[in-house]
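ok trying this again, last paste got cut off
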Amino acid sequence: MPIVTNIAHNGFVPTSRLSELTVWADSSFVDLSLSFADSGDYQLIFSQRYFTYGNTVTVYELDDIVQGYMVQRNASSGKVRLSLTSETESVEVDFDMLFCSMAIDSDGFLDFLQRSFLTPQRFAVVPRDFAIDLCTIDSDTPIEVSCRMINCATDEHFMMSWAETPKAPATGFVSRFSLSRSTVDSNVFADHELKPDDFRLLYIVVMQGKRAFTAFVNNDLSMADSFRFLNTFNCMSLFTTPGVRTKATKAERQLASVAGVTTAYDLSVTSSVSFQSGVLPDFATEAVNQLCCAQKVWAMRLGEWEAVTVNDVSCEMSDDNSKLNTFKLTYSFDTRLDRLAVPGVSDVFSEQFNPVFN
């Protein structure tokens, strides 16, 4: 009977464990197939025959196949069925699979799931108009949210807390909890005679059992200073940092001269945006690494999130205290047409004034 020798069957299995699969079989060949199901029936995604050498078959990079399929379905978890058929016997092995594109051992992975949300960082900087998602495999334990605020008139600090329940997953095993500035304002100021404009939000702590996530609010930044990306768990993450964006537009056209008249035709216009970040805190380094290597990235253009393609990355993180960590990336929007900025006067004074020379 074919036997998988290098993957434990208990608990959740990260997809990265499929990067090297070893099968023992007392036959000359093994037919291997992979099926995936996040809801409903299993769907076949891979099938191949392998010939044994010393009663052993080693298959590499099956994780790329499973992860590519899960990205297409926007799935962070699901069930994977591994079917093995030899000359005389067949066996099926089912795994509770969780998307994880980085290598991690089984014991460390289970400990991580019990102590962390599915995000690359425990601390993050968010803009004043933030909207973030936190994913967890626990849909039963309530989530406690605490925020610290300061009264702008009296400089008085105070804490507010409330409890919420994560949204049960429609498919798979991953639950999602959404937190935004409007959610915080509605919970903090709903039952009090307070106005949000009179207070400044400093930070938010989200806890669920042993899991904890802290978001420091930078009131000088907005969502336009942020990137959204699919992290190593195929969950949406938000990364915010001050920086400088430089847009470069390149126009190429062909010229033809007929009867002394030159005409331009076949105009091709391409544009890209170069982003140079400011100084990064130490806790942001892992998020930067995942942002630069993410399969899907979004940036904001004229108030709307749009998918982008990262063309070039320059990222070096150092543990030297005398060196500042920064990164630079160049990206282009996936949509061919540029957006037209419609001038308006209704919100001309809505931007926060920063007295630079004060």
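PB: full thing came through this time. The mean pLDDT is 85.
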